[in-house]
Amino acid sequence: MDLSQETEDYIRESIEYSLGLPVSSQTLQLKLRASEESLVRLRNQYFSLQAKLKEKDETIERTRAESSMNASALKRFVDENQRLAVECSNLLAQCKRWEKECALYDHDREALMDFGNEADERAKEAEIRVYDLEEEVRKLSEELHFYKCQYETQMDDTATDDASLEQNLLDNLLETVIGRDDVASTSHAFLEANSGVEVCQRLMTKWKRLRPSTQKVIALVAEVNTLQKDKEHLRINLHKAEDEVNILFEQNNVLDEANKRLIRLYQKEKHTPGSGGKPSSGKCSQGNKRKSSPKISSPVEGKLDFSEVDSLRQPLSPLRSNSPEYRLCKK
């Protein structure tokens, strides 16, 4: 096997170096040159690796920035997805409600259609009935017109007499209810008392021109007004009397309980041994003797003192017939 000259020189120098023989300067120069070339190559390789490392660092930084952006985007996406899920559930619930409402609307629509059909049938029946009634009304109108003409011919002669008779009957009725003597005074006093009312004031200005029947009607209105006030007073008196009756009923219950206690005490003292059927006297009787209510003098008589009750009673409202205004109207 043939080796190159450089290889042979390298092997020979290695053997000589291992044997401790001196190395030639040429060999040292070659090794120095090779070392320098290797150093240059290593420096270039170092610079190249440093540039690549810088590029990788930049790539890592870009990747890290992209990762952070992707993470924030992913978080926003997750939040948006959750929000959309909630909205989707809400929309589903709303859709179900709308479906129920649609079902109800369909049911109502069917019911309305049935009602509309029934209403159409009733309308047709009503139209037929209206037509029949119009025919009947037309016939009755013809008969009414005939009888009206006949009645007008008969009533032309008696219209004046009937009007005067009706007026006389009305005057007699008002005189029967009110009386003939105090009609003018009662009606005039009523208008004066209510002069603040516009109608009463206008009637006062036309007092001398009023008909007797009008004065009687005004007197009747005054009498009705008086009766209404009396009714209100009676109602107030009735309410007060009911309140007093309730108070008296409660007091009567209290007195009844006190009377029962006194009767039981009396019977107990009567049947006490050694009393001989009589209440005991002295300090013992004074110690067992109960104080009675100031409204009761004894358990047997049960006399009551209503002076306190009368002092608490409210006076009843006076009736209209006892008031000075009513006496003025009567004059």
Written account of the structure:
- The protein is built from nine helices and no strands.
- It is mainly alpha-helical and 331 residues long.
- The chain folds into two domains: 5-120; 175-279 and 286-330, no CATH class.
- Helix 3 runs parallel beside helix 6 and helix 4 packs across helix 5.
- The termini are far apart.
- The model is unreliable at 275-331 (pLDDT under 50).
Layout of strands and helices, then pairs:
Blueprint: H1 5-19, H2 25-155, H3 159-178, H4 183-193, H5 198-205, H6 212-270, H7 283-288, H8 307-312, H9 324-330
Largest sheet: none
- Please state the CA-atom Rg, rounded to the nearest Å: 64 Å
Global geometry: elongated
* Number of H- or I-type helical stretches: 9
Helical residues, percent = over 70%
Strand percentage, roughly? under 5%
Averaging pLDDT over every residue, what do you get?
Answer: 76
The assigned structural class equals mainly alpha
Q: State the order of secondary-structure elements, H for helix, E for strand.
A: HHHHHHHHH
Whole-number tally of structural domains: 2
The first-to-last residue Cα distance is 175 Å
Low-confidence stretches: 275-331
How is the quaternary structure best described? single chain
Number of strands: 0
Keywords: Coiled coil
Coiled coil: 25-150, 224-258
Region (Disordered): 269-331
Tag the structure with descriptive keywords.
coiled coil, elongated, mainly alpha, 331 residues
Question: Can you summarize this structure?
Answer:
It is built from 9 helices and no strands. It has helices spanning 5-19, 25-155, 159-178, 183-193, 198-205, 212-270, 283-288, 307-312, 324-330. Mean pLDDT is 76; it is low at 275-331.
